[in-house]
Amino acid sequence: xxxxxxxxxxxxxxxxxxxxxxxxxxxxxxxxxxxxxxxxxxxxxxxxxxxxxxxxxxxxxxxxxxxxxxxxxxxxxxxxxxxxxxxxxxxxxxxxxxxxxxxxxxxxxxxxxxxxxxxxx
Length: 121
What we know:
This protein is mainly beta and about 120 residues long. The protein is about 5% helix and about 65% strand. It has one helix at about 95; strands spanning about 5-10, 15-20, 25-30, 40-45, 50-55, 60-65, 70-75, 80-90, 100-105, 110-115. The longest helix is centred in the last third of the chain and has 4 residues, at about 95. The chain is globular, with a radius of gyration of 14 Å.
């Protein structure tokens, strides 16, 4: 079963990013929006809630995590991460009240990484 997927079209292909119940994350590709999706590969990321963001220069980034948000640049194939670019943690529960649901947004010239806040005790 797939949980909290994200999808994006790039260069005529549709990429579906997903997490599985065991915490692993992956991506599958299709030439149609409705699938079928094949060519699935596991990404070197563990956590939940994958999110993809493409900046104004065309660079694609992958965000994920629970309690700690992580991010890395996607390679041009959109099926692998530039592991040297990985940044961890970007947000934490302790410092930013981050729980899950990473989402990158750009407003004006500023980029914002948001997520769902952890419940206070």
